[in-house]
Amino acid sequence: MSELVLSSPDRDRGVATLTLNSVANRNALSSGLLEELLRLLEQAEDDDSIRVVVLRANGPSFCSGADLAAARSGSMAPIVRGIVEVQRRIVTMSKPVVARVHGSVRAGGLGVVAAADIAVGSTESSYALTEVRLGLAAASISLTVLPRLTDRAASYHLLSGRAFDGAEAARMGLLTCAVPEAELDAAVESVVSEVLKGDPQGLRETKTLLTAPLRSRLDELGQDMIDLSAELFASPRARRAIEAVLSRGRQPRPPA
């Protein structure tokens, strides 16, 4: 069995903890990780003893975004589709999903955070929508990210690719709240404890009401965003930029 995502169900309490565990590549969203995460989300959905899902990560990064190394071996379309399907599964689950966010979160990783019903992060965590610097657009994650952000914040960060911390992420709506790193576990535990006080039917129906706009966006725009992302990843400009990142470990030079 793969250990790209670890599952720790506490059925007595009603909490399933899913942990991204691809530490070597900073929990990049590879096809394998996405497939495993989808499988475990489905498993938690089907388990009547589970009432809340906690999504967290091992290592210094929560998620470094899409696995760019896959671009060397072929189409990025399967990964792009997997990113959209993970967002869809989180949004459409009948059980609340709480994200515990630490470290760095880049590009596609923000879609996972934005899809969660509640996202608690550390003030020291770091975020960036870096797609624009690689000749890409944050198309697939725009399905959940854009509804979370103010219009001005979205324009600035998607166009600049600038990094921002957890406190700013909370102010603009990406995070529910941000606390010092030392208090992160306690803050997540407090949130989970409060959510567990809800009746399963009440949680299910309330989440259905809350996620209606996101579900509509995913249904209406999901395939278009998959197609756009795959097309941009396959473009010569993006391929050159990605190869520069992979080969030299730094951002590519600005285009001429």
Automatic annotation (TrEMBL):
Similarity annotation: Belongs to the enoyl-CoA hydratase/isomerase family.
Name of the protein: Enoyl-CoA hydratase/methylglutaconyl-CoA hydratase
One Pfam family per UniProt: ECH_1
One MF term in the entry's GO annotations: catalytic activity
InterPro entries according to UniProt: ClpP/crotonase-like_dom_sf, Enoyl-CoA_hydra/iso, Enoyl-CoA_hydra_C, Enoyl-CoA_Hydratase/Isomerase
